[in-house]
Give the backbone structure.
Amino acid sequence: MGNGGYDVGHYALSLAYEAGNEEDGRRLRGTAVATARATRDLSAFNLDLKGMDVEAVTVEGVAARWKRSGQELTVTPERGVGEGETFRTTVRYSGGPETITDPDGSEEGWLPTADGVLALGEPTGSMAWFPGNHHPSDKATYDITVTVPEGLQAVSNGELTGQATKNGRTAYSWQTAEPMAGYVATIAIGTYEIRRSTVSGGAGRGDLPVYVAVDPAQADDSRRVLARIPEVVEWAEANFGPYPFSSTGAIVENPEDAAYALETQSRPVFPGAPDISLLVHELAHQWYGDSVTPESWRDMWLNEGFATYAEWLWQEDHGGDSAQEIFDALYEGDYFDDAAANEAVWAFPPAKPPSAARISDSPVYERGAMVLHKIREVIGDDAFFGLLQGWATTHRHGNADTADFIAYVEKYAEGSGGKTAPETAPEADLDAAPDADLAPVWEDWLYGDGKPSVA
Ligand code: TRP
Ligand code: ZN
């Protein structure tokens, strides 16, 4: 996934949805405009697009040559693009987008539902519904307009900036003004109950709009938990710092239509009514994953370890088990109901997933959270909560990898207060860790094979 030589700053997607039957319907006619800056001289460049028929490509309004090979759409502009130049690429395309099956067997991309479709993109699915640089490190702002047959609704990331019906079709315009990685872009088309509210001002911001879209079949079960979004956001702000985006909310689909939850930016998707832990998990991802985005999929534990640890902190603060008790249960092997699940926590080190099929396995989630708990143990509670906020602030709306994290924690523990991140992150050199107390956290907990011998 992903392509070099340019950096996309903005996507403008105009998507016309055609509802056919559930089998061969759910088609799309799209125009995608990517505004990018060349990071070197380009005579040609690639976009990721899987399936769909490409009808025309222009660069700066001039017809460009293009060819396709697998998921690569290679564009050769009439005139080359010079390093540093900003250029606009427009792709017109249509077809029935593909449902993509991942190495771990889960489905993403284009997921037809009973009354519409849900587009999800972790880690690769966004290439099924729009051409782009689908690498987590190339974040951009988005304008997404979806037209649907009148009577259906279209929900996406960010804020609804327009809604207009003409000749039996309704256009919904959504805007994401903060940078977003392609894998957390979404559209949900169907019939939803919409509820709007606000998280009242605080934490250095004004009122935060909440936009919730719920499949009517899930409305009763969802009402109570979704009413807690403001409470969860405020709790998270107290722990992680100001909410990083200009709106929040949720999309609740039927469990038959979506098999998992996903932290789609500003508006996480849930397969049926979430419990409070899952709501906390997906909202915590807004800080850790969506705002601070992994540089590559190898850094996945920076997403899932943090979001899992957020669940532990929520339990700890709400009369449940403390993070220490959860850590101990995992270490003793009696956290999950079955022995195999308890054993699976130690299958590989969090920062070294052995393959793409394993990036959502337990070592990335539970053992990733255990790494954070070990850091807390070494540096103490006050410093640890400062670190959680400092990490989110330093890399807000950016990308970071595991080496950045280690460098940040080391510097923070030395007493810099974590306010400054090193200009260029050093490679994670475990032997060079200046603080002897943290070295075992990196060596044994983050990078070590098997279960560390000391809890
Ligand atoms: N990121 C999701 C979560 O933890 C889980 C998930 C959904 C996922 N799809 C994925 C993880 C694909 C890895 C790859 O809420
Ligand atoms: Zn997660």
Notes: The chain has a mean pLDDT of 94.
